[in-house]
From TrEMBL:
SUPFAM superfamilies membership: DNA/RNA polymerases (SSF56672)
Record's protein name: Reverse transcriptase domain-containing protein
One Pfam family it belongs to: RVT_1
Segments forming domain Reverse transcriptase: 88-355
PROSITE patterns with a match to the protein in the record: RT_POL (PS50878)
Amino acid sequence: MRDAMGRPQTSRTKIEEIAVGYYTNLFRSTVSVSRIPTPTQEKAPRIEECAIRQMKPRRAPGPDRISADFLKSASKTIIKQLTKRFNKYLDAQRIPDQWKKSNTVLLFKKGERDQMKNYRPIALLSQPYKLFTKIILNRLERQLDEYQPVEQAGFRKGFCCMDHIHTITQLIERTREYKQPLLLCFIDYAKAFDSVEHNSVWNALHHAGVDPCYINLLEQCNTDTFTTIRMFQRELRVPIEKGVRQGDTISPKLFTTALNHAMLQLDWDDKGINIDGRKLSNLRFADDIVLISQNREELQQMVEELDDVSKAIGLTMNRSKTMVMRNEWADASPITLEGTSLPFTDSYVYLGRLISMDNNLRAEIMRRRRCAWAAIGNIKEAAHLVSDKKLRADLFDSTVLPALCYASETWAENKTSTLMLVRAQRALERTLLKINRAKQRSLNLRSADMRLMSGIRDAEMYAWNAKKRWAGHVVRRTDDRWTTRVTFWYPREIKRTLGRPATRWSDSLKKLQGNDGQHWSQTAQDRQKWMEACARR
């Protein structure tokens, strides 16, 4: 293992020192954030029910060796005692000291194995502690969600990755059709969840109107915490002075609350791209932020302002991974951050989907094909041992097909992309059946015969059904989120140039319009009519 100076170390003691030094430095508080005092109010309502049913099974236990499966199986026996204990902790505003400890396991990611930064730390918390904070989360979730703007889609009920993927692809599609400039800056924070300062979280909860008793309790849950790392025989103790606790069910909400509190200081109401009289300046999915502008100078200012408020809560932008993407009508001058030019890119993998300014699906379907091959590699051995045709097909449909068709809801598909998808599935199907092309020709098997043998679902229809389902959701939304706004937006003050536009996302949906001439979006507003229209095509 290499130390901070880049020198290789081989002794166990030195390797342990490197690990402790790296993570102690990572979790050390570096920004002083003043704490807003919270007044003492009435006690929180007592806990009457536990959230044991909501716990996910087969989760590794923490330092106390109590597993989630044990809590679920013994819930009828221990629920009264747990409730009594939890109410005691709630009234005292204090948790057991054992809950402040976590065990960390280091998993290699990629790169050089002798670099500590190339290992992902997985923290194992006490399962009773996670159950306790889950109950607190259930009480605060609605309030914390209402504090978030529609730009934040991360860890919120009713929101998903497709919301922002769809919004970005529609922006690219419309600005390309009307030849308007578009600049996107994809922000990457270094160790975001591990870096946010504790006081910034408690101040944000106070600003969100959370009851002080819950703020004080959560503060107590995150004070004097530490983790242990076992490299060889010894347990190495690392104090944690900042960041939200990894593996804690409430941690994502705490982070997004702190981030939104910081971004509320930004006066961006007049920045971004005008969508029917309202400016869209950014989209967020937890710590994944996209800044949107049509002007280079404006984007430069937005990057600098976001960097300032981010530093105030302990977040640092990763200069090498923060990317800028522009279309051919935008200013090509560089965007800088503290004298460093941010790299331009022609494409960017955003929330799992490859985004490019030409909206060409070729590169994305090639990525989907690679992901599908990785997925079938994981199940191939098991699939070849299964003799039941239906079970094997279900295994393929539940693992490989979602990997192949991920984000197909947002595809502006054409004949070329559809053919690529069909060919990719046929190759995967041959692997599933252990029939190569030569054997297929010798047996005189057509593609339809192979499909009867495999029994798997058709990828083209799978993607098409997902798109129809998603289109219905987008049209029927009533919460004024950007997904719906951008879908039906176009620059009304600009006249589109002559010539046939590139394939639009909505072009394939026009096939669902009935003989009455009603637009597909009007039909989709009625769920039953939309289902009937989708069943016909």
